[in-house]
Amino acid sequence: MNRVNFVRFIPGIAWFLIVMVLLFAPGNEFPSTKWFGDIQIDKLVHAGVFGLLGLLFMIPVGLSKKEKREKLQYFIRIALVISLWGLTSEFIQKYWAIGRNFDMLDWLADSIGALVAFIYCRKKYI
Fold it and tell me: 26: which of 20, 51, 61, 96 is 20 to 30 A away, CA to CA?
């Protein structure tokens, strides 16, 4: 059986937990900084945070001895789950996090981060 060592996923799991704490912290804990007019720096942060999350889960798969086709399937699934998690976190912020709201552009940035991780891992490991 061609398995991936669970220990390699510990950094991804730890980062996921850190991201959860940050995503659901009260909204007044974060500064509102803008670059170049209306472009908000938090969109870059979202892309980076979710891109890193993608990398931390895709790299262990990329380093495994799985066939290229199977790696690609996992990369796609991981990217989709991360994008879905970004959307879910926006709804959680809207309904349960104090001082936070739903922002479709945050979800777009989360998804772009997952996509960048997917593209990087596809080029490097397939």
Answer: 51
Question: What would the pLDDT profile of 6-57 be if each residue is shown by its tens digit?
Answer: 999 999 999 999 999 988 888 765 555 555 556 678 899 999 999 999 999 9
pTM: 0.89
For residue 37, the 8-state DSSP code is T
Amino acid identity, position 121: C
Phi, psi dihedral angles at 79 (to 5 degrees)? -60, -45
Answer yes or no: are the C-beta atoms of 16 and 86 closer than 8 Å: no
Report how far residue 31's alpha carbon sits from residue 86's, in angstroms, rounded to the nearest whole number.
Answer: 20
Q: Give the Cα separation of 87 and 103 in Å (integer).
A: 9
Query: What is the C-alpha separation between 113 and 107, in angstroms, rounded?
Result: 10
Model confidence pLDDT, tens digit, residues 80-96:
999 999 999 999 999 99
Tokens, residue 22: 């940050």
Residue pair 94/101 in contact by the 8 Å Cβ criterion: yes
